[in-house]
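Thread title: Can someone regenerate the structure for this chain?

I was given the following input by a collaborator and told the matching structure tokens would be attached. They weren't. Posting the sequence so someone can regenerate them.
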Amino acid sequence: MFGLSFKQVIGLAFVVSLVGSLGGCASNGGVLDGDSLGATGGVSSKVVNRGRSVEIGRFLHWDKNCWAATIPNVKIVKRPKLGSVSVSRGNHMITTSECKGIPIKGTKLTYRGRRKGVDEFSYQVTSGPRAGVHTVRLTVQ
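Best answer:
Regenerated them for you:
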């Protein structure tokens, strides 16, 4: 295709998918709706139980063939003071679009509150040329 390698074609398909025409990107199945690669600013709030882990979000990107386009990178920008946050990679099911039910590799963000009170942290999701920063405020009870 125009002298491009397979890797370049897949990369191009991913960039196009980010603007919505070939594939999808999502924060899939997390307890806080609305977190996604494109989310910038804003605060999500949730009440969580002390000592229990809660999934904040799963970050996935796929192309028109329902293949993982890239694994999003999640970086903690500001750490929580009353708990801990972890980032892990693994297989996750797509729960939206025509690709629903297909497993692809993605990144999961999990929080665990250790002490009661209001906790807050920020994370950045990067994939390809796009990045978004989001702040999460949690009330640990």
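Residues 6-18 form the longest helix (13 residues).
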